[in-house]
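Input sequence (496 aa), recorded before submission:
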Amino acid sequence: MIDNAVSKLIAYALRAGLIEACDRTWAINTTLDVLKLDNYTDPNQEWGDLELAPILEQLLDDAHSRGVLTENSVVYRDLFDTELMGRLTPRPALVISLFQRLYEKDPQQATDWYYKFSQDTNYIRRDRIAKDMQWKAPTEYGDLDITINLSKPEKDPKAIAAAKNLPASAYPRCQLCAENEGYAGRVNHPARQNHRIIPITINGSPWFLQYSPYVYYNEHCICLNSVHTPMKIDRACFAKLLDFVRQFPHYFVGSNADLPIVGGSILAHDHFQGGRYTFAMEKAPVETAFTFHGYEDVEAGIVKWPMSVVRLTSNNPDRLIDLADKILTAWRSYTDEAAFVFAETGGEPHNTITPIARRRGKKYELDLVLRNNITTEEHPLGVYHPHAELHHIKKENIGLIEVMGLAVLPARLKEELAAVADCLASGSGLRSSELTEKHADWAESFAKNYTITPENALDIVQKETGLVFAQVLEHAGVYKRTAEGKEAFLRFLNSL
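Predicted structure, token format:
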């Protein structure tokens, strides 16, 4: 049976183009080496459709039964099957060469191949991504994307305990560093033997292109600085974003903000996120046009969006860079006490920007989302952050992906929202279960608006979850969508 599984893995690698026919004997032997198998009888069989995940499951189960895989948990299995796939993944030079040849023909051909390759190597785990819950939620801002991400494995207790006993390591410096390519991993750092990155030049400096292993949206890519250097939103950042979409016009790209609370999870390594996906924010129209003095040639205005977004559009990226830098510089030092906007308190800066770049035909477009990370006693996690009454759904930072209209919600909500739906459908008490108690006030507030049945309960709960996410974004917006908020927003723009 195990010989069949080995044969299937090699057949899969051949079909995926990871190896050539002349590599077959070598591929079998290197696989046997990882599995610690001394004997092999080739089944000499043609296999039908092959799915990678079941093949790997069989190989890992066998390895555990023989004591080769010592711990049968997700963390250890991931380390082991990544080593297996790493043996069958082409070397970086071959991957880079093919990408560059395809890019010369068409950038989209290059990324199409590279994205498929990243899945075929199991760096992007198709089987886990397929388990993610995703739905669209209609709101006044368009259809927001809601996802409950289940593809990122949680650490098991044994792995956590083992990690505590590991010596401190500064290699790789972080999970974004180029040093991860080919790294064997450890219980507190993912294995990346099957990971390949593409060198690119952005605005004259060396960067790399890769995909996110967790794929929150289609072709979710990451651009990372070749140097482990902190993120910074500045003129150079705008230039890099616009240069990237010049080179990859079918992708958008954006940066998290560079301050805690309003930034992403990794601020220590300069990086962008992009991909081939149209978010609700991109579809949102400009509702208030605005002309900046000296930049009459740049189309500009406030976007109809729950957060505070200035959209700039021009055929000339240099004009966008100049104007974006002018807006950023002004915003960094801008205080409007009446609107509760403070550039700094106690020497701590609060104002920054989340920028997103894209192409619309031949035009370049730059969305500048105004951010502020001030905290108060009432809102210790941030005034412009989801407030406490929404934490049962979303408590985490509102980073780039959320800003654009995609909610990345914690895995716990899969079970909790299903339990809320069951309670509403059956009339059971929401406050009698640990799963639903935290959601009780919210569920009771909207239940009266519907005739809830077992058939429609979950759809209703998901729809209302989307409306909560719209509120989350409204909380994160510096200028509220009120007459006073719009007036304050225009005060800032007119101050430039």
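Checked by second reader. Residues 2 and 490 are 68 Å apart (CA to CA).
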